[in-house]
Every structure is written in C-alpha cells, then in structure tokens.
Design brief:
- This protein has about 1200 residues and is of the alpha/beta class.
- The protein has 25 helices and 23 strands.
- The strands form 5 sheets. The protein has a 6-stranded antiparallel beta sheet. Strands 8-20-21-3-22-23 form a 6-stranded mixed beta sheet, covered by helices on one side.
- Strand 6 and strand 7 form a beta hairpin.
- The longest helix is centred in the middle third of the chain and has 196 residues.
- It is extended and about 185 Å long.
- The relative contact order is 0.14.
C-alpha cells in the first residue's frame, strides 16, 4: 500500500475535517450526483500542484475554500494532506516511514506547503511526486471528461500522458530549468554586450582625448626644452649683446655729429642766396615802375576804346531785350484774352447768388417782425401774474410766523428721535453683523473640522498615487531594459551580417581569399570591379528568382578587361589560390531578349525580364545581359510550363520559387534548403537590422521619457502630499482660533441686544411727545396750505406763459441767426463779384499798355542799331604811337631777363634747402635708430626678466637648475621659431583633459575585464547548450523505448477489450522542429470496421480505447496509485464489466481510487466509501457495503 489516506479540512464542500483511508487494490468512492465525490479527486490534484482555477472548476483559487451555507459561515482557509507509506523508500531522499504532503490556502491569497508538517516550497512536493511517476499533468488522475479530452485533444497536448508514463517528466523539469538558465545567460550576455557597447562608446572619445593629452605632453616637453635653452642662451649672451648695441650707438652718434656739421654749411649757402635774390627784387621793382608809366597811358587810351566797346555791347543787349519783349508781349496778349473772359463769367455768377440771398432775406425780415410783436404781448401778461404772486406771498408770511415756535419744538424732538433711532439702527446693524459673523464662524469651524476628518483618506490617496507611479516607473524601467537588450541583440545581428559581407561568408575559398588579398594589395584591388552579388541589387520578392538565374555566377568576379582577368588568374596560380571565373566587361558578349521574349511578357504569370528586375550600373550591361539576358521570370512553375510550351526553346524561364526551365527543355526545381546562402539578401538584412535598431532606440527613448515623466510626477505628488500635511496642520490650528472667536462673538451679541432694548423704550416716549406737537402744528398748517394753493395756481399760469414766451423767443433767435448768415453770404458774394470785375478791368488796361509797349520796343530797336554803328567808328580812332610801343617792349625784355636770373637763384636756394632737409631727415633717422638701439638695450634686460619669470612660474626652475637641460648644439633662432610653433600647436589642441591617459587605461582595463566576463558567459552558454542537447537525446531515447512498449501493449489490450480489431499509436512529426514536442495520434479499428482515426468512433468506443491506453501504460510502468473519476460512464454494461475485470487485474501493481456510479465497478472494489450530504452543501464520508449503497446514499448512486 503506497497511498494511505487523504485528509480534507474546509476544502470545497468538505467543511469539516474529513479523513479517507485507502487500502490496497481498488477503493471505490460512490454517491449521488452533486454530493462532492469529485472534490476528493480535486483535492488530490490540488496537492499535486495544480495552479489553474479553471481546472479546479472555479473562477479563482479562493473558490476551493468552503464558501458557507445558510446554516454555516464560510471558512477562512482550507487544507488537504496526502499521506504515503514510505517504508519501501519510495521517496528515497526522505528518511521517514510515512510521508505527508500538505497544502494550505488562506482567503487572503497566501499559501503554505508542508512535508511532514515542515514548511517547504510547492516545487519540493511536485519534484518528489514526479520522481515516483506521479503528477497532475499525466495519468495519475483521470478526472471527469478527461477520457473524452484525451481522445479529442490535439496530438501535441496528448503527449504529456506518455511523457509521464515513460518517466521523462522528471527530465522535462530539468530541461525547463536548463532552458531557463540558458535564457538568463543570453539575457546576461545581452546586458554585457549592452554595457560593453556603452564602454566602447566612451572608450573611443576617451582614446582621442588620451592621444591629445599624450601629444600635449610631448609638445610641452619640447616647448620646455626650447624655452629653457633660449633662456640660458639669452642669459649667457646678455653682456655681449649689450656691448654690441653700445658699439652701434657710438657709430650712430658719430654719423649724427657729421650730418649736423654739413647742415650748418648749408645754412651759410642759404643766407648768401637770399641776399642775391633781394638785390634782384630791387632791380625788378624799378623796371616795373617804368613799365607801369607806359602801361597807365596805354590803359587810359585802351580804356576809352573799352568804354566804347562796352556801350556797343550794352546797346546790343538792349536791342536783344527789346526784341524779346516784343515776343513775350505777343504771347501775353493771347493769355490776357482767356483770363479776361473767365473773370467776367465769374462776376456774373456771383451777381445771381446775391439776388437769391436778398430774396430770402426779405422773407425772414417779415417773419422776425411778427415774432417781435408776439413777444411784446407775452411780456405784458407776465408782469400782471407777477404782481398777483407777490400779494399771495405777503399773506403766507404771516401764517408761517405763527407756526415758527411749533416747528422749533418739533425739530428738537425729531433730532432726538433721529439720534436715538440712528443709534438703534447702528446697533441693529452690529447685531446682524455679529450674528452673520457668528454664523460664518460656526460654518467655517464645521468646514474645517470636516476637512480635517478627511485627512487620512486624502493622504492615503496621495500615497497610493505615489505607489502607482513607482509601479509605472518600474514597468517603464523593465521595458527600457528589455528594449536595450533587444537593441544589443539587433546590433549583434547587424554586426553579424556585416561580418558576413566583409568576410565573404558563403563564398568559395578561392573567391574569399582573392577578395581578402585585394584589400591589402592595391594592384589587385585596382583590377577587380567586384563580385556579381555586390554589383546587382533587386527587391526582396525577386531575390530567389534572380539568384537562381545567376546560379554559380553570383560568385564570379568582374574585371574591366581580359588583361586584368589574365593577371588575376596568374596571381591565383602563383599563390595556389584555387580557380575563379572572371567576367571581363569589354570581352563578354551580351545575350539580348528576342521578340518571343517580349511577347511572352503578356502571358499569364509572366513577371518580367530578369535583367529589368535588377538594379546595377549601366557600365556592367555586357555582364548582366551575358548572364541573365533573354531570361523570363514567372510567378510559379505551372505558368512557367505553359509559357515554355507556347514558346519552346525560345528563352530560359525562372520562377519566383527558384524553379528553372532551360532553353534545352530541361526543368530544375524542388524544395530549397532553409538557411542556405542568399547573397542578394545580405545587404537588405543589414538595412533591416539598422531600421529595427532605430525603431527599438526610438521605443527605448519613449520608455525612458515615460520613466522620467513618472519620476517627475512622483516628485510632484510627493510635494503635494507634503503640502497636504502642512495644510492639515494649519487647519487644526484654525479650528482652535475659530472656537475662541465664536465665544467672543456670542458674548458681544448678548450685550448689544440688551442695549437695543433700552433704546427702543426711549424712542416710544419721544414718539408720544411728537404726537402732541403734530396736532398743534396741523391746525396752523391748514391756512398755509390754502395760500400755497393760490400761489401754486398763479405760478402754474406764469410757468405756462413763460414756456410759450421761450418758444417764441427761440424761433426769433433762429431766424435772426439765419438773417445774419445771409448778410454775411451777400457781403462775401458782393466782394467776390467786385474782385472779378476789378480783375477784368486790370486785364483790359494791361492789354492796352502791352500793345503800346510793343510799339515803342519796335521803334527803339531801329534807334539802337544806328547808335551801335556810330560807336564802332569812334573805337577805331583811339590807339598808342609806334615809338611808345617800342620803348615799352624793351623794358619788358629787360624785366624778363632779370626775372630768369632770379629764378636761377631761387633754384639754387631750393637745392640748398633740399640738401638741408635731407641732412635733417638723416639726423632724425639716425636719432630713431639710436632710440631703437637704446630700446633694444632695455629690451635685453626686460626680455630676460620676463623669460626668467616664465621659467620660474611654468617650470619652477632657476638659472642654475636649468643647466641640466642645456643643449650645446642649440640654435637660438631655430629655437625661437620652434617656441612660437609649439605654442601654436598646443593652442590648436584646445582644452586638455590631463587625466585622460589614466582614465583611458582604467576604462580599457574595465573593458578587457568585461570582455573576459562576456567570454565566460558565452562559454557557460555553450556548455549549457551542450548539456541541454545531451539531456534531450537521453529524453528522446527513453521516450522512444517506453512509447514503443506502450504501443505494443495498446495493440494487445485493444484486441482483448474489443474482442478483435486492431489499433496503434503513431508519432506525428508534422510541422515539428523539436522531436520532443511531437504529438501522438491514436488510430483504431474496432472489429468489423475500417481503420480510422479515433474522432470517428462512438463515445463508448472512444472511452474503451482510452481505457486500453491507460492499462497499456500501467503494463509498462505500474504507478503507485491512480485516481479514476467516472471514466467508465460512457461504457455499456458489458464493457463496464470488462473494465472492472482489467481494473482488478492491474490492482495487483497499482492502487486504484475510483469514483463511480457503475455497479460492476463497485462489485470489484476492495473497499467502498460513500459521500453524502446530510446537511445541504456539506459533504460527509461514510463507509458502506454494496447492498447498502442505494438505501443509504440515494437512488441515483448506482447507474
């Protein structure tokens, strides 16, 4: 006996603690429908590790806890314990004679697992049960409908029964653990690759920084060497430099002294020339005086002539002016005619406007006279009314004098009443304000108290929001991690495809070697244009067809000429590099398509010409047309065959699947090897990987932003929570303040109400006194009212007349205003008309004057012409005598000679002055040179001081310590040039990270360590993969051996149960990459029927077939026990009896617990338990005999 008992407490309908003990052989559990029999099987399955609430016939796992009835409360937990006999060490790792597995579940969702009352994991229980062939997955428990489910299940789902039967279920958990570890290893590898990628990303710029720092240090050392040696040189040669400059200064001073002596000699020459020029000036002055005498006389005579000439010119100009005046006068006469007509017309228009205005003025004068007369009548009536009003006022004053005293008394009382009433109203206002303030204070107090009461609720909401944001941030972080892992995997894929391309993976050795050599040999590279696979491109859907069309030529190498091909072939021979086919562009003969090919493009299934479906440089036309010219691409082999029949032997046809129909009629095709080389697809795969990387990086960025947003929002909510805490603290302080204010307002309100009652009593007394005064006042006021009415009537009549008077006066004002406007208009029109008339008269007079002036001008022109003739005769008679002219010319010649002599002297003077200026400039230049040398002398000391300061500041060296760096071969000129160059180079380096070398070495060491760790992880993956393959091989071997034995047992038992026929179990490897995932098909042929699948059998036949499988499994590997839940329900009486006999037969090796309604099964039972519900909703176990079943358990217990 292996399975000793099951204990249930609060599990489903077993509310009370219930114990069922099992004996060897067959134990039957019977009872009416709905009494809870199957709950026993569910309890065993639950302890076996079932996690599916659906399998447990519930919506969630808490449904297995007793839910209560009308008479009982629900329980807070449930517990099931399975006890096994371990005297035979069935559980070899447990040193107990008896082993109890317990599972406990609480309504809170918490679970507990125990082995012999010691806490453990569910995995510990499941692993030990699997080790002895027990488990929830297989045939240990065959529940209601499980038989039908096994028969109707998919082949791959049905496999689990046979895995448990063959004992590989233990290996399966190990396999899952290995696969899980392998997946974790790949995750770790991706993490390492991701981190290494980040380090690589940092390493490259840091390497550049380190290189720049290294360069800086080299330049700095060179600069230090040159500056120190330059300093030593200048320090050592400072005295000699000073002496050299002193010598130069002495020489320059001597030159300055010599130049000054020469300048003094030039000053003497300058004074002599100035004296001679003065004598020449004196002589010239005398000659000029004599010439002037003759010139004055000559000018006098010439002046007379000039006067005559001037008069002639004047008269000529006068003549021209008169002629111009005649011309302009004529033009002006024409203009005056037009202006005169315009002025006369304008004057006529203004005369008409004057007449119209005068007529309107006469009309208004009549209206104004009538209004003035009416106005005089109103003024007379107004005087009479005014006199009547005056009389009435005199009577009224006497009455008013009588009531004066009463008014004074009344006013005094009214002022007192008003004073007290105002005070009362003010007090009422204060009372109302206090009441309102008290009400508001109470409301405010209640609101604040209510607000504080929600403190916990609001804080909890904010804290929950923070928790939710933490959860969202964690989810985003996890998604970001997954994205980064995917990016690392995609980059690995891209790197792989690039390596495939760069290493020419898939190419034959000779091509790979030659192309690799060409990368290192420029001569080879210059002769190779590329392989066909690199030259052509096509769309993904055409890749198989195009690559098939090219065939082996995909690896051919293209060259420009046949000489290049010959050279490469000789190179292959020399290097023993194998054989390659070369395609010289200029030597190949193209194969162009024919008319048949073009016509075939219109046929069904024709896709296009191969050479038109590829993209390439037109330079390779000969190559492409030679290889795939006259080749048609078709969609499938059927259409390709039809096209080939219609155009036999006309062209080659290739299908999209890679099938070929050649021009000879041969056909090549079939399945293609998966994962085979696809040269054309490699570049596309690289691009696809890049696109996937970009998409994944975008997704990672989105997750990073989402995480950042969650963190930001979390901080905001945390700040709000803190504000909420402060707000509640302030609210509690406010409650105390409001309570105090409420008390103060209540006290003040009581005092104000008391004062108000006092004031109201005083007002009542004053009102009584006021009534007496009013009665006296009323009598005196009646006479006043009568006189007031008389005054009012007179005043009303006066007001009416005054209104009419005002209206007449207004009309009169309007008409007077219009009359004044008309008078203004008439005056304006009259003035304008007079102006136009005056202008017309002026123009008429101007025209007459102009005609007279024109006549006078014509007359003057004749007189001026005669005068000009007379003046020209007078000019000819005025001139000098010949002798006078000859003497004047001699004087002028002598003057010119003396002037030339003076000019010579001036030239000599200018020469002397130029020499003097040159000497002065030389002296100045020499002075500047002397100053420059003096500066150089000073510069020697300042430069030496500056250089010494730099050496001390930059290098912390003195002159003595610099001697260790002295270079005897140092050239100061080249050194200065080198210093300037080195400073420029150092500045060009920009900012320097002085720690870059150390940082680079540290980061590089870290990278090398990560590389080693990655290699360790990869080695672990390789080792784990090998172990997994070994385990899968062992599992497959054990499964195959066990499955074959079960199949033989099944064939035999099927014949025994059915009394003939045949059946078998078949492995289904269709669409299955992993043999360990292959499904199991059941094929059965009962007696008298054809061989058919199990789905075509009747329900009873399927059940009996499944039972045959169960017993076939038990023949291979008897189980410790097996739970069968109404599996024979679909069998007829005869087949139930067969089932019961087999059950009894196999009970020698296996302990059976059978839940049943069938009497033959009960008859074979070694022990019988009944399940009943004496209390509704609560199951109980009773031990019964077969004869007592129906009487004690119910009529539907036995079917």
């Amino acid at each position: 006996m292996n399975f000793k008992k099951v204990e249930l407490n609060g599990f489903k309908s077993f509310a009370d603690k219930t114990e069922i003990k099992f004996d060897n052989g067959v134990t039957c559990i019977v009872g009416p429908n709905g009494c809870g029999k199957s709950n026993v099987a569910d309890a065993i399955r639950w302890v076996f590790g079932e996690q599916s609430a659906k399998t447990m016939r519930g919506s969630n796992m808490q449904d297995v806890i007793f839910g209560g009835t009308q008479a009982r409360k629900s329980q807070s937990f449930c517990e099931v314990t399975l006890t096994f006999d371990n005297s035979t060490h069935m559980f070899s790792d447990l040193e107990y004679d008896e082993v109890a597995f317990t599972r406990r579940l609480f309504r809170s969702g918490e679970s507990e697992y125990l082995i012999n009352k010691q806490p453990c994991r569910m995995k510990d229980i499941v692993d030990r049960l699997h080790a002895v062939g027990l488990g929830k997955e297989g045939y240990s428990i065959i529940g209601q409908g499980k038989i039908e489910q096994i028969m109707n299940a998919k082949p791959e789902d049905r496999r689990s029964i046979f895995e448990e039967a063959t004992g590989i279920i233990v290996f399966k958990s190990r396999k899952q653990d290995i696969e899980r570890r392998l997946a974790n290893s790949y995750t770790n590898l991706n993490i390492f690759l991701q981190r290494m990628g980040e380090v690589e990303h940092m390493l490259t710029p840091l390497a550049r920084q380190a290189e720049k720092t290294k360069k800086y240090k080299e330049l700095y050392e060179q600069l230090k060497h040159n500056e120190i040696n330059l300093y030593i040189y200048k320090h050592d040669n400072a005295e000699s430099a000073r002496a050299s400059i002193g010598s130069v200064l002495s020489r320059i001073q001597s030159e300055i002294d010599e130049s000054r002596r020469e300048a003094e000699g030039m000053d003497e020459k300058y004074a002599e020339n100035r004296r001679r020029i003065a004598q020449s000036d004196e002589l010239l002055q005398k000659l000029n005086e004599k010439i002037l005498e003759y010139t004055v006389e000559m000018q006098k005579k010439e002046g007379d002539v000039n006067v005559i000439r001037a008069r002639i010119t004047f008269f000529e100009q006068q003549k021209e002016g008169e002629e111009k005046a005649v011309e302009e006068g004529g033009a002006r006469l024409e203009a005056i005619g037009g202006e005169l007509t315009e002025a006369q017309n304008s004057a006529d228009d203004y005369e008409k406007k004057i007449l119209d205005a005068q007529r309107e003025s006469e009309t208004l004068s009549g209206e104004i006279a009538a209004l003035n007369e009416k106005l005089s009548e109103y003024e007379a009536l107004s005087d009479e009314s005014q006199k009547s009003i005056v009389d009435t006022i005199e009577n009224l004053s006497e009455i008013r004098q009588n009531i004066g005293t009463l008014s004074a008394k009344k006013e005094a009382v009214e002022e007192r009443i008003a004073e007290i009433a105002a005070a009362a109203e003010s007090l009422k206002g204060e009372i109302e304000a206090d009441k309102k303030a008290l009400s508001e204070c109470a409301d405010w107090h209640d609101e604040v108290v209510e607000y504080v009461s929600r403190e916990k609720e609001m804080k909890d909401a904010k804290e929950q929001e923070i928790l939710d944001l933490n959860t969202a941030a964690d989810a985003a972080s996890e998604s970001l991690f997954n994205c980064n892992a995917r990016i690392a995997a995609l980059k690995d894929r891209e790197r792989f495809y690039r390596n495939v391309k760069d290493d020419f993976e898939g190419y034959k050795f000779s091509v790979k070697k030659l192309m690799s050599d060409a990368r290192r040999n420029a001569d080879l590279a210059g002769r190779i244009k590329g392989v066909i696979a690199d030259i052509v491109k096509t769309d993904e859907k055409y890749e198989v067809a195009i690559e098939t069309a090219f065939g082996g030529a995909m690896q051919n190498i293209v060259t420009a000429t046949s000489d290049d091909a010959r050279y490469l072939i000789e190179y292959l021979k020399r290097t023993k590099g194998g054989q390659i086919t070369f395609l010289p562009v200029k030597s190949l003969k193209p194969h162009y398509e024919t008319d048949y090919t073009r016509r075939a493009l219109k046929e069904k299934g024709a896709v296009g010409l191969a050479n038109e479906l590829v993209r390439y440089d037109k330079y390779y036309d000969n190559v492409i047309y030679n290889l795939i010219g006259n080749t048609l691409i078709a969609d499938n082999i059927a259409n390709a065959t039809d096209i080939a029949k219609k155009y036999p032997h006309a062209f080659r046809i290739v299908t999209l699947d890679g099938d070929i129909i050649s021009t000879s009629g041969s056909m090549t095709g079939g399945s293609r090897r998966e994962g085979g080389s696809n040269f054309l697809a490699n570049e596309r795969r690289i691009e696809q990987a890049q696109a996937d990387i970009a998409a994944a990086e975008k997704e990672a960025k989105a997750f990073a932003e989402k995480r950042a947003a969650c963190e930001e929002k979390k901080q905001k909510v945390a700040a709000e929570l803190e504000q909420l805490r402060e707000s509640f603290q302030e609210a509690r302080a406010k409650i105390a303040a409001l309570a105090e204010k409420k008390t103060t307002l209540e006290e003040k309100l009581a005092e104000d109400e008391k004062d108000l009652k006092t004031q109201e009593a005083t007002l009542a007394l004053l009102y009584e006194r006021m009534k007496d005064i009013d009665s006296d006042y009323s009598a005196s006021s009646e006479g006043e009212e009568k006189i007031n009415r008389m005054k009012s009537d007179a005043q009303g009549e006066s007001d009416r007349r005054k209104g009419e008077y005002d209206k007449v006066k207004s009309d009169l004002g309007e008409r007077n205003l219009r009359m004044n406007v008309l008078q203004v208009y008439i005056a304006q029109y009259r003035a304008a008309a007079e102006a136009d008339k005056a202008n017309a008269a002026r123009l008429e007079k101007e025209r007459e004057d102009l005609k007279a002036r024109i006549a006078d001008a014509k007359k003057n022109i004749g007189n001026i012409a005669a005068t000009i003739t007379d003046l020209e005769d007078m000019a000819e008679k005025a001139a000098l005598t010949p002798e006078q002219l000859q003497e004047l010319n001699a004087l002028r010649e002598k003057k010119d000679e003396e002037t030339r002599a003076k000019e010579t002297l001036n030239a000599e003077l200018e020469n002397v002055m130029a020499q003097t200026r040159a000497l002065n400039e030389r002296i100045e230049n020499l002075s500047e040179r002397r100053h420059a040398q003096e500066i150089e002398l000073t510069k020697i000391d300042s430069e030496l001081e500056n250089l010494q300061a730099r050496i001390d500041e930059e290098y912390q060296e003195t002159y003595e310590s610099c001697q260790q760096y002295k270079d005897d071969s140092f050239d100061p000129k080249e050194g200065q040039t080198a210093v300037n160059r080195l400073k420029r180079e150092i500045n060009s380096l920009g900012a320097i990270n002085h720690n870059a070398l150390e940082e680079y070495e540290t980061l590089n060491a870290q990278y090398q360590e990560m590389t080693a760790q990655r290699d360790d992880v990869q080695k672990g993956i390789d080792d784990t993969t090998a172990a997994l393959e070994e385990l899968k091989g062992e599992m497959q071997k054990q499964f195959d051996e066990g499955f074959n034995q079960i199949n033989e047992n099944f064939k035999k038992l099927f014949k025994e149960l059915f009394g003939g026929g045949r059946a078998e179990l078949q492995m289904d490897y269709t669409d299955c990459e992993d043999p360990l995932a292959a499904g199991v098909e059941i094929v059965a042929c009962p007696p008298g029927k054809k061989l058919t699948k199990i789905s075509l059998l009747s329900g009873g036949e399927r059940a009996l077939t499944a039972i045959a499988i169960l017993f076939a499994i038990l023949m291979l590997r008897p189980m410790p026990f097996c739970v069968l839940d109404e599996i024979e329900a679909a069998l007829d009486e005869a087949n139930v009896d067969k089932f019961a006999q087999f059950l009894k037969k196999f009970a020698k090796e296996t302990q059976f617990i059978v839940i049943t309604h069938r009497k033959p099964t009960m008859e074979k039972a070694d022990s019988l338990f009944g399940v009943t519900m004496e209390e509704k909703g609560v199951s109980k176990i009773v031990s019964v005999k077969l004869s007592e079943v129906e009487s004690r358990l119910g009529g539907d217990t036995v079917a």
